[in-house]
Amino acid sequence: MDVIGVIPARYSSTRFQAKVLADIMGKPMLQHVWERAKQSRMLDDLIIACDNEIILKAACEFGAKAVMTSKEHTCGTDRISEVVNPLDVKIIINIQADEPLVHSMMIDSVARALLEDKMINMATLMKKIEDVSELLDPNVVKVVVDKNNFALYFSRAPIPYLAPNAEIDQVTYYKHIGLYGYTKDFLFTYKNLPVSNLEKTEKLEQLRVLAEGFKIKVIQTQFDTIGVDTPEDLERVLWQLKKGLTNASG
Questions:
Q1: From CA 56, how far away is CA 20, in angstroms rounded?
Q2: Which of 39, 139, 173, 249 has minimal Cβ neighbours within 10 Å of its Cβ?
Q3: Does pTM top 0.85 for this prediction?
Q4: Dist CA 26 CA 59 (whole Å)
Q5: pLDDT tens across 216-237, in order?
Q6: Tell me: the pLDDT tens digits for 46-55?
Q7: Is there a cis peptide before residue 8, judged by omega within 30 degrees of 0?
């Protein structure tokens, strides 16, 4: 296989218990993610990596291919590694189970970048920030890139800093969207990288990659997502979906 998608689905959550099974318009959130990912033209397979029998049962009920992984894993990367270890595959796409608005073209663009350029080991997404409130929100991760669109840094703070007398209309700010792709070899390299001080400071796992001197390709997308961490986030997703249905019918 060339490309597979894996959706790591965790039952426990400190802020929103069992959020991946939260109801959105009659379907669990996880099903929305899976259905959207299934529309990808690049995925040869799509697997939900579960840590709980309740999630496994729900995934099987809506027709997904799902497997149980160790409950000892502390992050989605470890869960994905367990799933793909025995598989003959080139590229793995890590699809977040709490982003029900993910678009299949986001998946395809990351997969295509890794397949077309053998020098790229890891890729992710960014979107232009158009709402100033996102720029100031620490839950919205910002990214700056070099001239070849490789990440220079990720931060919860607004970056780049706008110096006094600098012209804001000459600066473009980008938010990071946490959909990742890796070559299989690099996934296991990434999994074993030490936690960096930058990661500890920002609470951003991808910073260990930059701290160790590896590169992350960042692809610009026009599509946006909403990561669900709280019931309030879920309401925002519901509003977006209803607005989409209204616009489609109108």
A1: 11
A2: 249
A3: yes
A4: 14
A5: 999 999 999 988 888 888 899 9
A6: 999 998 999 9
A7: no
